[in-house]
Automatic annotation (TrEMBL):
One GO process term, biological-process aspect: spliceosomal snRNP assembly
Record protein name field: Serine-threonine kinase receptor-associated protein
WD repeat residue numbers: 255-286
Source organism: Paramoeba aestuarina
Family: Belongs to the WD repeat STRAP family.
PANTHER family recorded: EUKARYOTIC TRANSLATION INITIATION FACTOR 3 SUBUNIT I (PTHR19877), SERINE-THREONINE KINASE RECEPTOR-ASSOCIATED PROTEIN (PTHR19877:SF13)
Keywords: mRNA processing, mRNA splicing, Repeat, WD repeat
Pfam families named among the record's database cross-references: WD40
Length: 299
């Protein structure tokens, strides 16, 4: 059972811009925090306790992901590199050098995906580090997010456009949608088949199969958002607040959160908590409205 108070995790000295959770492995799970201080950290997902710091980047770390089984991790940085790490001893297993800042990444099966500031997306083979990557330019602007979709395709995101690609034919996207003033797009393969788009007017949910979109939350100043594993709730971060809504747009909880804008937010794999990272360099783990309501009903 999740605890009923917020857990505050220190350690970073610069903004925390990305959170990624592992799946549940042997009854436990972990999360990886990416920060502009160049030192991504691995933590216990239930307690927030520090497990280790991956040392080797020389620039801001913009994103990362934990590989299946939680024994390896991938991070990308402003030092023009993507690195694979051993989560058991913290050692660097491989470095792929890029021509510019690397802003985003994902890892599925034996394939690694990176989005670079040179506008190119690259697909690497994680079983053969020396293989030349497949690369293409999905948008006219810089690609700010990349994801492997659950059905095998790829999702790319720029400033105002989301596109789906079939890796067998990269001449043009399978489908695409325009969303004005995108701040953050979140997608978790293990949760729901939905893309969560946080933008200047609120939060939109986009079906991965059809790209049909609906906007359950209308709200200014949304920096980031995430959907719960059961698809029933949406957590979001703004300039000062963390909020949780039902998927129909009814607010459940609102918390004063960080001393600066919330840059990323994501639910844990069990759905009992969600974690926010912010410009103040802090990480906070919040109990969900469902957990809090269950406790209140017991009293």
């Amino acid at each position: 059972m999740a605890e009923l108070h917020v857990k505050v995790c220190g350690g970073h000295t610069r903004p925390v811009c990305h959170i990624d959770y592992s799946g549940v492995c042997d009854g436990s799970y972990w999360f990886l925090s990416s920060s502009h201080d160049s030192k991504p950290m691995l933590r216990n997902g239930e307690t927030g306790d520090w497990v280790g710091t991956f040392v080797g980047h020389t620039g801001a770390v913009y994103g990362g992901c934990i590989y299946e089984g939680a024994e390896k991790a991938l991070t990308v940085s402003g030092d023009y590199s993507a690195k694979i790490w051993n989560c058991l001893d913290g050692g660097c297993l491989n470095t792929w050098t890029h021509p510019h800042y690397v802003k985003s990444c994902d890892w599925k099966d034996d394939r690694v995906l990176t989005g670079c500031f040179d506008k190119m997306v690259r697909l690497f083979d994680s079983t053969n580090y020396d293989t030349e990557p497949i690369q293409w330019m999905p948008h006219e602007n810089v690609c700010k997010s990349v994801y492997f979709l659950s059905h095998g395709g790829v999702l790319t995101v720029c400033e105002d456009e989301i596109a789906q690609w079939d890796l067998r034919d990269l001449e043009k996207p399978v489908r695409q949608i325009t969303v004005d003033s995108l701040n953050c797009v979140d997608y978790v393969r293990q949760h729901q088949n939905l893309i969560v788009a946080a933008h200047k007017n609120g939060v939109s949910l986009i079906d991965c199969d059809t790209f049909d979109a609906r906007q359950p939350i209308t709200l200014e100043d949304v920096e980031c958002a995430s959907i719960s594993p059961d698809g029933q709730n949406i957590s979001l971060g703004s300039r000062l607040l963390v909020k949780e809504y039902s998927v129909d747009g009814v607010i459940q909880r609102s918390h004063y959160a960080h001393h600066g804008p919330v840059l990323h937010i994501r639910y844990c794999p069990t759905g009992e908590t969600y974690t926010s990272g912010a410009e103040d360099g802090m990480i906070r783990i919040w109990p969900t409205s469902k957990v809090l309501a269950s406790h209140e009903n017991e009293e």
